[in-house]
């Protein structure tokens, strides 16, 4: 079997995606630092905003997280004053996570930061290439898994 010339990681889609994800996470994480949140916090804030008050279980499912990590993230968001847990409607044993006004503000600030970070991450791509990349990534994410 012949080995491709160059770094084999350049030919394996999963590894390319992982490397791109690491770079994007690093750039975005650095951009979020002045807001005092990290990308996982931002992901929770964005998801709660999009879906309304939501159980931690659903957050775990939506974000592909594990229970202990999600509990830690929501605890941190509560400590920062960006989210709160309230009894869920119709189930006294469950709690729903919702945003506070401060959480909505840091989310808005984070969205602005995300746009600036995206410019840095995608700097080598023109607008048509950026649109194509986003479209292809959405298709990868929405195609049914085998």
Summarize the structure.
The protein has 146 residues and is mainly α.
Name the beta content range: 5-15%
CATH topology: Arc Repressor Mutant, subunit A
Strands of the widest sheet, in order across it, are 1-3-2
Quaternary organisation of the protein chains: single chain
Specify the CATH class: Mainly Alpha
Structural write-up:
The protein is mostly helical and 146 residues long. The chain has a single domain (9-140), classed as Winged helix-like DNA-binding domain superfamily/Winged helix DNA-binding domain (Arc Repressor Mutant, subunit A, Orthogonal Bundle), CATH 1.10.10.10. The protein has helices spanning 13-32, 39-51, 56-63, 67-80, 101-121, 127-142; strands spanning 54-55, 83-88, 91-99. Helix 1 packs across helix 5 and helix 3 (56-63) crosses helix 4 (67-80). The longest helix has 21 residues, at 101-121. The two termini are 28 Å apart.
Tell me the layout of helices and strands.
Layout: H1 13-32, H2 39-51, E1 54-55, H3 56-63, H4 67-80, E2 83-88, E3 91-99, H5 101-121, H6 127-142
Keywords:
three-stranded antiparallel β-sheet; about 10% strand; Arc Repressor Mutant, subunit A; about 150 residues; 6 helices
């Amino acid at each position: 079997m012949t080995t491709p010339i160059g770094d084999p990681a350049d030919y394996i889609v999963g590894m390319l995606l992982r490397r791109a994800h690491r770079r994007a996470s690093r750039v975005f994480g650095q951009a979020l630092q002045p807001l005092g949140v990290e990308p996982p916090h931002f992901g929770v804030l964005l998801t709660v905003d999009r879906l309304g008050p939501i159980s931690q279980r659903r957050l775990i499912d939506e974000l592909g997280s594990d229970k202990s990590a999600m509990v830690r993230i929501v605890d941190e968001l509560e400590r920062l004053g960006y989210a709160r847990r309230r009894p869920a409607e119709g189930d006294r044993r469950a709690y729903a996570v919702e945003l506070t006004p401060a959480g909505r503000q840091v989310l808005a600030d984070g969205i602005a930061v995300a746009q600036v970070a995206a410019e840095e991450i995608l700097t080598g791509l023109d607008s048509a290439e950026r649109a194509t990349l986003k479209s292809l990534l959405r298709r990868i994410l929405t195609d049914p898994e085998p």
